Amino acid sequence: MFDQEPNVSRRKFITSSTSATAAVAAGSLVTNADLEQVNAQVNTNSGPTQLKITDMRIAHSERSMLMRLDTNQGISGYGEIRYDASKTRGLMLKSRIIGMNPCNIAEIFRKIKKQGGFGCAGGGVSAVEVACWDLAGKAWGVPVWQMLGGRMRDRVRMYCDTTNMPTGKEMGNHLKERMADGWTFLKMDLRANGNGGLYTAPAPDPAANRPVRRSFAGPPLGANPQLLPMGAYDPYGEHLFTSTFLTDKALDWLEEYVATVRGIVGWEIPIATDHYGHMPIETFIKFARRLDKYNLAWYEDVVPWFYPDQLRRLKESCTTPICTGEDVYLCEGFKDLFEKQAISIAHPDLANLGGILETKKLIDLATQYGVATCIHNNNGPITLFACAHAAAAGDQFLAIEYHQADNKTFLDRVKRSDKPGNPIMDKGFIAVPNGPGLGFEINMDVLKVDLREPGFFEPTTQWDNEIDFDGHM
């Protein structure tokens, strides 16, 4: 069954077909009888100015650490903690927001934002912020985008992520299937796989008794040292920017891979690339110059976002756009990147950045600097809805990431509250929801099936009195 909100939204009230509401909407003379009929339709439990947060609950499903904020008026709001973060990121904030009015989002955010940080550390703050927007919209009976100043677009383009495949032919064919499904913007992981001689790097210190780590996901280095993600390194030994160099053999292999993909999918559709890891700028400049000719949409996260000077050096050395930002916390974290003209595309993750308003602010700020914005998102459906509202209300905008195109049942956990029978996404676009709040209802039965750890919105009273180390809640 789908979760139903107990309050009658003001939008539904206004569009009701009774003579009394029609008179009110038209500005006609209203009698006492009309007012009595109107009052009978209003849920008096829904008083936004008296709304208070009473509880926080968590349910952990695939790619979604779902947070629910309950209130004294029987309505709940939902957000998602970044999927690879701990639920503690959110629960530690419970004692700080209990009793506050979720409609006062700025006040709540000011109180809790110091508890966040870059990467997954921003997950809890972002989830609370999103849940408060959902609650505020439900309490006032309007979609979130309306509270952000209205929408600039009613459909938002998505880009479709595709994880690593061994050969360019396999990747190209899979991307071709994406195009047949209606996707108009693609992304692929790009890694140096092959047989030996792909990189130059010092061997791990055998006396260190520590595993060699890598920048991004890939096969364990000890299992097959000839299958390496680009940028493999030992962070306890050599510096992460100087320990791994790509050889010409690796560059030949990568260029052939991309050429094969382009040959299959054609030149008309954008293809972004990801999963490089960190390596010397000089090495990546060589790589970029090899692949510039294939008109890729961007190179993503080549250098950590907090090295804007290195990113600018790379940007000025190639002709493919440079993209980063998924680990940035708060809109202000992009300031140096913009002022130093270090990137062509800002790529915030709403579930890290601080939530909906920070993302909307970032889109507008990027527009002022002539920088495009895409939203990174590998979270669950609730974050997808939040991204749609921020993207709809922002200025110039490119696309939102979708990470689950191969999971055909991923979106079955939710449905649109305004048009329950309509698909959430259609041919690479998401229609901006018009229902109150984020505009969705949850399919609790499906959500329970996808649980990744025990507990389904169970009580969290042990977090009611959590305090900081200095004794202040």
What does this structure look like?
With 473 residues, this protein is of the alpha/beta class. The protein has helices spanning 10-14, 19-26, 32-41, 88-91, 94-97, 105-112, 123-140, 144-147, 168-180, 248-265, 281-291, 308-315, 335-339, 350-353, 356-368, 381-393, 444-449, and strands at residues 53-61, 64-71, 76-81, 155-162, 186-189, 199-200, 245-246, 271-274, 299-300, 322-324, 345-346, 372-375, 399-402, 414-416, 425-426, 429-431, 440-442, 451-456. Strands 4, 5, 8, 9, 10, 11, 12, 13, 15 and 16 form a 10-stranded mixed sheet that branches. It has a 4-stranded antiparallel sheet with strand order 3-2-1-18. A hairpin with a 2-residue loop joins strand 1 and strand 2. The longest helix has 18 residues, at 123-140. It is globular, with a radius of gyration of 24 Å.
